[in-house]
Recover the amino acids of this structure.
């Protein structure tokens, strides 16, 4: 009888621990950029940021860069088609701060998404917000990187992971993960002596891949319209 009671007690304790873990995981907040919902359009984001007083420069379609390329601002690893829309501010904008530090620039990225008719218009009306980046250029990069880690940990808990890579240019990364496949990543870049603070909705990668697939299929369909015609010019 004592063995049965001990077994039941052990099972109850295990279930209680599992329940506590599940509850903790469910309480992980979604990480957002300045409180803005992910997935909203370019114009919705611009409207929400209008009171910030920052000057935005060229907004245009671009061959979307994969998220790994965006977080350290490395100009590599692109999609083959213009499946994203972006805008940025520069240091010549009115000086703004994040966590007490002057912002050098801000970049915002949006994936093109099909409209209500299922057509990919590549219009800023039909976009989905998935990435934002602050760039700061402190004098003591290492010290400020450490301070940002403390400040972000006060909001999102201890970092989920830290990593480094690069050969000629060396990068350090520190990640925090949130609900709904979101994350914030701080990155040091020893080539430009700067720090990137990245806010990411990873579902944007799926949206851009979908956009690329649709754009490629549109080109294939246009080519097939030429099949079976009598046009033999130049042959």
């Amino acid at each position: 009888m004592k063995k049965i009671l001990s077994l039941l007690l052990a099972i109850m304790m295990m279930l209680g621990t599992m329940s506590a873990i599940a509850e903790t995981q469910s309480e992980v907040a979604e990480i957002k950029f300045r409180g803005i919902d992910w997935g909203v359009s370019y114009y919705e984001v611009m409207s929400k940021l209008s009171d910030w007083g920052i000057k935005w420069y060229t907004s245009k379609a671009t061959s979307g860069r994969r998220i790994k390329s965006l977080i350290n601002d490395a100009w590599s690893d692109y999609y083959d088609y213009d499946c994203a829309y972006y805008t940025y501010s520069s240091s010549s904008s009115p000086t703004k701060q994040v966590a007490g530090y002057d912002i050098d620039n801000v970049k915002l990225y949006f994936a093109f998404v099909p409209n209500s008719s299922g057509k990919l218009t590549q219009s800023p009306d039909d976009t989905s917000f998935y990435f934002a980046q602050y760039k700061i250029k402190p004098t003591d990069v290492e010290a400020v990187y450490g301070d940002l880690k403390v400040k972000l940990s006060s909001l999102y808990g201890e970092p989920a992971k830290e990593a480094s890579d690069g050969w000629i240019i060396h990068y350090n990364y520190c990640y925090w993960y949130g609900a709904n496949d979101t994350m914030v990543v701080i990155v040091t870049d020893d080539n430009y002596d700067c720090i990137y603070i990245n806010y990411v909705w990873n579902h944007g990668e799926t949206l851009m891949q979908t956009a690329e697939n649709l754009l490629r299929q549109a080109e294939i369909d246009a080519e097939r319209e030429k099949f079976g015609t009598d046009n033999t010019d130049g042959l």
In short: The helical segments are 2-26, 42-48, 67-71, 141-156, 203-224. The longest strand covers residues 127-136. The chain has one domain: 29-224. Strands lie at 60-62, 84-89, 97-98, 101-102, 105-112, 127-136, 161-165, 171-178, 182-189, 194-201.
